[in-house]
Amino acid sequence: MTSIKAQYYTKLDNGVVHCQLCPHNCHIRPDKKGICKVRANSDGELYAESYGQLSSLALDPIEKKPLYRFYPGSLILSTGSYGCNFSCSFCQNYSISMGKPETAFISPENLVYKAFRLKDSGNIGLAYTYNEPFISFEYVLDCCKLIKDRGLKNVLVTNGYVQEAPLLEMLPYIDAMNIDLKSFSPDFYKEICTGNVEIVKRTIETASKSCHIEITCLVIPGLNDSEEEIGDMARWLSSLSPDIPLHLSRFFPRHKMLDKEITPRATLEKAARIASRYLDHVYLGNI
Questions:
Q1: Of 15, 128, 136, 154, whose CA is between 20 and 30 Å from 71?
Q2: Residue 230: which H helix or E strand, with range?
Q3: Could you tell me how far CA 160 lies from the centroid of its own chain?
Q4: Between vectors from CA 58 to CA 53 and to CA 61, what angle results, nearest 5°?
Q5: Cα 285–chain centre separation
Q6: Number of C-alpha atoms within 13 angstroms, CB side, residue 75?
Q7: How high is the pLDDT of residue 92?
Q8: Cis peptide before 221, with omega less than 30 degrees from 0?
Q9: DSSP string covering 61-99
Q10: Contact status, residue 55 vs residue 46, Cβ threshold 8 Å
């Protein structure tokens, strides 16, 4: 397996490394990995173990990301690896994000060449998606720089759980992002995702000043579908810009969350009416 030295870490005593890529701030012992399962301590150095190890590659409509107001009608070559720095019990793509799927190594140069070759077929660039792209920071950044040199677009589909320094290093190369805002509740993020909503909000605010952004919320019955929460989320997004698109997506039972019903269409439509009081572009997904 090809891996390279990681960025954003410091060495501690006894061979332990402190990963500073995401807000988990993992202290990783020798021969162990971080929460994301892809950043590994080998002999007191941190390595990006998933570098170039791709599990998925497809030419998708841009609307599938979902991005509805960024080059609508175009296609984008979409790729993903494996691993995630969240542990959402409702993960809709858990076999990739939490498992170890089969992968094949594709260098940044080869991936960008594939993307460029598809330009005549309507491809506008590369989308880093399917699993969390920020945990593959080094690979994604290498690809982003090469794509820019080719005059194509970079798209991130992300949970937004990343430290400020790597985010700021990546953003100059990013043209559009779809960021998951899984809930507006600190307890939801803490108990269900093992994360902090304030970090995600900071990512959204920072990215909104740098590139096109759209937001996705998977609406789960009884967990994040209250009128108050949807209203608070939409009101906060509108404080950044009422022009930010919000995608309210339908939940289907997956992974460990099999006790919840599929989100009723009426719930999504009601949430959309509430969000539309504050935002100009509200869409329903997975319906």
A1: 136
A2: helix 227-240
A3: 6
A4: 140
A5: 17
A6: 14
A7: 82
A8: no
A9: EGGGTT-SSSSTT-EEEEEE-S--S---TT-TTHHHHTS
A10: no
246 - beta bridge partners?
Answer: 215, 282
Q: What is the CA radius of gyration of the chain?
A: 19
How many residues can be counted in the chain? 287
Q: Is the separation of the CB atoms in 155 and 176 below 8 Å?
A: yes
pLDDT at 98: 84
- What Cα–Cα distance (Å) separates residue 279 from each residue in 72, 201, 275? 19, 17, 6
Task: Report the distance separating Cα 51 and Cα 252, nearest Å.
Answer: 31
What spatial distance separates the first Cα and last Cα of the chain, rounded to whole Å? 40
The pLDDT of residue 2 = 64
Q: b/e per residue, 89-116, with b = 16+ CB within 10 A?
A: ebbebbebbbeebebeebebeebbebbb
Q: What is the mean pLDDT of each run of 10 residues along the chain (287 residues)?
A: 88 97 98 97 97 97 98 98 95 85 97 98 97 98 98 98 98 98 97 96 98 98 97 98 98 92 97 98 96
Dihedral sign, CA of 37, 41, 46, 52? negative
Q: Which residues contact 30 (CB under 8 A, 6 or more apart)?
A: 15, 16, 41, 42, 43, 44
Where exactly are the structural domains of the chain? 4-48, 53-285
- CA dist 265 and 284 (Å) reads 9
3-state secondary structure of 27: strand
* C-alpha closest to that of 283 among 250, 245, 252: 245
Instruction: Evaluate whether 182 touches 188 at the Cβ level (below 8 Å).
Output: yes
pTM for this one? Answer: 0.96
